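Dear support,

I submitted the protein below through the web form. The confirmation email said the job was done, but the results page showed an empty box. After a refresh the structure appeared. I'm attaching both so you can tell me whether what I see now is the final result or a partial one.
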Amino acid sequence: MTEIKTKRPFQQRVVDGFDRSKIHRYALKSKARRLEGLKKRYATLLLGASLAVGGVGIPMKYVDAHRVASEVTGGVESAVVTVASLTPTAQHEQELTMITERVREEFFRTEIPFGPLIYAEAKKNDLRPELVAAVVKTESEFKPTARSHRNAQGLMQLVPRTGKWMGADNLMNPVENVQAGTRYLKYLTERFDGDETKIIAAYNAGEGNVRKFGGVPPFKETQNYLKKVRKSEADFAQQVDGRISEQLEVADASVRIMR
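What the results page shows now:
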């Protein structure tokens, strides 16, 4: 396994084929450590200026023996230090989750073709948007009129039979196609108990083949497909993580300027 080196502390040890959910948990822990460092440095400051966090209006609280109470108005934060008890770690995790989700949504809205649609349908089906986007990229390179020699159609390259099964009448319609494709991924997620390797393999080779071979079928096409989806998924997630880190750095720099 090859380690991907990066300047971002929480982007280290991202390995090809590594389960992205584990990478996400590692990133959250690293970002929590970053916030711990920030709160110790700035808990006693009176924060009377605006912390611009990418224009998305994310409340962030840096707390030690004091609590920084933040109120967001129009994407801008003003914070006041008050004496209070320690904020539970669970609250930090909740704030980090909110930051992650807002930055992720903004990333999909601005950087991914059909990103708002992909993000919305992924969330509706309890799927990670990075996975859905990776499947779309691998299947069609985000071309809504793509058609294969096997008559797989549209962004997520569904055959008409699967499309109808998942509720799509016109697979060349991007909305119907992504809705049906994410429903199918959701179906496979339930069938394989969330095992993402099997889910991706089944999307390419079929549920029956994955069950027959007890995992990824020994088909070169499917094995290459799995690698491509994993790589795109990791790339998207790394870009999102990079944006999150940038927002934290903006906040950090703003606090330092006010000192």
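Response: this is the final, complete result; the empty box was a page-load delay. The beta strands are 3-4, 14-15, 66-73, 76-83.
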